[in-house]
Design brief:
Layout: E1 3-9, H1 11-28, E2 35-40, H2 44-59, E3 65-68, E4 97-105, H3 109-120, E5 126-134, E6 146-150, E7 157-162, H4 164-167, E8 171-177
Parallel strand pairs: 2-3, 2-4, 4-5, 5-6
Antiparallel strand pairs: 1-8, 7-8
């Protein structure tokens, strides 16, 4: 079996999407007061830092960024494979407007786990979701508030997000098996 790669976003397109999401976050929240960004491991973390940098350029305020490891909250791993400690920000989420940041929204199960993790660590004012790619195929009633790009896919296709902080360059690809 061979696979076919189709590039759906290059570095410039990713940058434009993050700029737009940053502006949408500011607009929807009528500023940036009381907002924290939580990047979901792995690629949501660098995206959260990039959004914080863009918002700082626009608003002259640097938003706090935390890292969220949801491994122990996942429902698709046996208990023996779950890690016992998750990474949470060293600040309180209670009363804050939390924006979860992830690379791809697919079934919604990762976001469900992230919601559980956040709520276990405090009671935020609200939780919003920013994703670079929404590929559809939801299994849970979860919807992103901020989307870089909708990329309709079949279940036989995979979305691969590559970011320079992890992968040496920025690119989003659809990988389909032939």
């Amino acid at each position: 079996m061979t696979s076919q790669n189709t590039i759906v976003m290059d570095q410039a397109a990713i940058g434009r999407s993050l700029n737009r999401i940053a502006h949408e976050i500011i607009e929807r929240n009528k500023g940036v007061e009381n907002i924290i960004l939580l990047g979901i491991h792995r690629r949501g973390v660098p995206l959260a830092y990039r959004l914080s940098e863009r918002i700082a350029q626009i608003e002259n305020v640097t938003l706090p960024v935390g890292q969220l490891d949801i491994t122990s909250y996942r429902d698709d791993l046996p208990s023996s494979e779950k890690m016992t400690a998750e990474t949470m920000p060293d600040f309180d989420v209670t009363g804050k407007r939390v924006i979860l940041v992830d690379d791809v929204l697919f079934t919604g199960r990762t976001i469900r786990a992230a919601l559980d993790a956040v709520i276990d660590h405090g009671r935020p004012q609200n939780i919003q979701l920013a994703v670079l790619i929404d590929r559809g195929h939801r299994e849970l009633p979860i919807k992103a508030d901020f989307i870089g790009k909708n990329v309709p896919t079949s279940r036989k296709e995979d979305i691969r997000v590559l970011l320079s902080e992890v992968d040496e360059f920025d690119e989003v690809r659809i990988i389909s098996e032939k």
